[in-house]
Amino acid sequence: MNRRRRETIIREIEYWKRSRLLPEHYCNYLLALYTEGDASLSPRRPLRSRLEASLCLLLPAAALAIYFTELSFVLQTLLCALFFAVCLFFCWRWRNERELLHFPLIGSAWILLVASMLEVDRFFQGQAGALAAAVVGNCVLWFAVGRLLRLRYFSLAAVSGPLLVAAAIWWC
After folding, report:
1. How far apart are CA 67 and CA 4, in angstroms?
2. Which H/E stretch holds residue 39?
3. In the chain, where are the structural domains located?
4. By percentage, how much of the chain surpasses pLDDT 70?
5. 83-123, pLDDT tens digit by residue?
6. How far apart are CA 83 and CA 104, in angstroms?
7. DSSP letter for each residue of 126-146
8. What angle do CA 43, 45, 48 make, to 5 degrees?
9. Inter-residue contact 10 to 30 (CB < 8 Å)
10. Do 102 and 145 touch, CB atoms closer than 8 A?
């Protein structure tokens, strides 16, 4: 079989795998068959790997922009909203790829938690009850996402969050 035809078949099998038209183990078998066990024959997507790398760099950039810079309240809020929107875009883009979906979900949950804590601390300065309510609100959202997408670590974080808040309030 000529190389061009083989690459077309491989791309088609990868599409079937992404779209879940066939079970994953069937697609893996067909890919191994047509690539003759050599994954380097499978066409790579450099754009996708650049998107993955940019997402991995997004969280440290968000942490630097939020915590270690002296930005105005409005600019800090806009940066958090931009980082959150980028994470949501990646969630939408990778909604069918379970192994990649975790990164933008965790990133968006973290950015939303940090942004809500900053906003609550700015508006209700020194009030622990308002901050605890913001954390518990985020935990409720995490629980809903965890149940909807069947992600146990989101549900576990949602349950442990209010417990940690209660322990912190009790300790003080």
Report:
1. 51
2. none
3. 3-35, 47-171
4. 88
5. 888 888 888 887 777 777 888 888 889 888 988 888 898 88
6. 10
7. T-HHHHHHHHHHHHHHHHHHH
8. 155
9. no
10. no
